Amino acid sequence: MLLGAAAPAAAQGLPSRGAVEALTDVLDLARTARGWVIRHREGMLVLRGEDERLYRINTAGLDAPTLATLTEGRFVTVSLKPSLTPGAMPIAASVEPGEIDPSAAPGAPPSALPRAPR
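and the corresponding structure tokens:
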């Protein structure tokens, strides 16, 4: 009997991305975005994620020293909290600078790439 009850659950596979995001919101779990800073102006960060997608993140609640780390081309990890309005821009809770060289960013000019010693 137990085997029969477990089979349908196993056949369902992994939950959809929307279901995971909804559960994350309901449980108030932290989410993160990792990528390269494309632009930071007037309380809005544009981040090119590791998945090559662009993300807009509200940074109005961050302190001045944290905002200073959001320089164009820098790799960062941003902890996010959901907006109070469904579908609105996520809100940055904190920022951690990354260890990836800005020249490794997607679209970096060839002159920015490290050169082999001669």
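(Above: one complete record from the training split.) The beta strands are 31-41, 44-49, 54-58, 75-81, 91-97.
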